[in-house]
Specification:
This protein has 279 residues and is of the alpha/beta class. The protein is 46% helix and 17% strand.
C-alpha cells in the first residue's frame, strides 16, 4: 500500500489557452478582477484575446487565477506556470497581490507586443515529432532559437519568418512536421531584449511577498530564487516545460491540475509523464 501523501502540481498556462466565454466566467467568480482588467487594458481583453498578445495575456491570467481560486486542492501543492503562467502562479502563491500581478501582466503584454512590432517579421514555428537535438540543429542552421520544449515531440522555434520558412523545409525533409504558430512575435528569443529590459523596470517597483507554496520557474525547471531577475530574463529564455514537469514529479508531485481555460497543459503532462490530469 502506498501511504505517500498526495501532492498536487497546479499548472498555469501561457498564450494560446483562451476559450470563448471565459470572460463571463471571470465576471461571475471574480468581478473585481474582471473590472480591473478591462480598466487597465482599456478594452475588452476577453473578447479580443485571439487578436493580440496585449489582450491575450491579461485575459488568460484572469481566467486562470479565478479558476485556481475556486479549485479544491487536496494536500500540499506545488505551482508552475508556462511562460505568462509564471506570473499567474506567483500571484496565486501570494508573491504578488492580484492587483500588482494583473498590472505586471498588462505591462508584459504591452512590452512584448511593442518589441514584436519593432522587429516586424518575428514569429514562431512548432516542430512536431522531432527531438531536442534535431530542433537545436535546425535552429542553429538558420539563426533561430529553440524557444519551447513543451513535451516529447513538441518543440518550438522562434525568429524571423523567412528563416522559419527555410527551417520548415529542412524539418519536413527530415521527416518532421512543421507548423507556423499564430503569434506576431519571436517570443522567448533575443528579439524580446527590449521587452525584458522594460519588464525588469516594472518589476523593480512592485513589492514581493513570501510564497505560500513553492513556485517553479519554467526557464530553470527549479523553484524561483530571484523572482524579479528570473521573470525579466524569462522573456528571452527558452521555456523548459518538459523539464519543469519532470522537476515537479521529482519534487513529489503525485497529481497534476491544469488551471487553464483550454486545458492545453494537461496534454503536455500526458505526453511527458503519462500522469492523469485534473480539470
Amino acid at each position: 500500500m502506498n501511504d505517500r501523501p498526495q501532492t498536487t502540481a497546479v499548472l498555469f498556462p501561457g498564450q494560446g489557452s483562451h476559450v470563448d466565454g471565459m470572460g463571463d466566467e471571470v465576471a461571475r467568480t471574480a468581478p473585481e478582477l474582471h473590472a480591473r482588467c478591462l480598466e487597465l487594458v482599456g478594452d475588452d481583453a476577453f473578447a479580443r484575446a485571439g487578436e493580440d498578445t496585449r489582450f491575450a495575456q491579461p485575459a488568460i491570467f484572469c481566467a486562470s487565477l479565478a479558476a485556481a481560486a475556486h479549485e479544491s486542492v487536496p494536500g500540499p501543492a506545488l505551482y508552475a506556470g508556462h511562460s505568462l503562467g509564471e506570473l499567474t502562479a506567483l500571484t496565486a502563491a501570494g508573491v504578488f497581490t492580484w492587483e500588482d500581478g494583473l498590472a505586471l501582466v498588462v505591462e508584459r503584454g504591452r512590452l512584448m507586443a511593442q518589441s514584436a512590432a519593432e522587429q516586424g517579421d518575428g514569429t514562431m514555428t512548432a516542430l512536431l515529432k522531432g527531438t531536442p537535438e534535431q530542433a537545436a540543429e535546425i535552429a542553429a542552421a538558420h539563426g533561430l532559437t529553440v524557444a519551447n520544449d513543451n513535451a516529447p515531440g513538441q518543440l518550438v522555434l522562434s525568429g524571423s519568418a523567412p528563416a522559419l520558412d527555410a527551417a520548415a523545409k529542412d524539418a519536413r525533409a527530415a521527416g518532421l512536421r512543421a507548423m507556423r504558430l499564430d503569434v506576431a512575435g519571436a517570443f522567448h528569443s533575443p528579439a524580446m531584449g527590449s521587452a525584458a529590459a522594460g519588464f525588469a523596470a516594472a518589476l523593480a517597483g512592485v513589492e514581493l511577498h513570501e510564497p505560500k507554496v513553492a513556485v517553479f520557474s519554467c526557464a530553470s525547471a527549479a523553484p524561483f530564487t530571484d523572482v524579479r531577475a528570473e521573470l525579466a530574463a524569462a522573456l528571452t529564455a527558452p521555456v523548459l516545460w518538459r523539464q519543469t514537469l519532470f522537476a515537479l514529479q521529482a519534487a513529489g508531485a503525485t497529481d497534476f491540475l491544469d488551471a487553464g481555460p483550454a486545458q492545453i497543459l494537461a496534454g503536455t503532462v500526458k505526453r511527458t509523464i503519462g500522469e492523469p490530469v485534473g480539470a
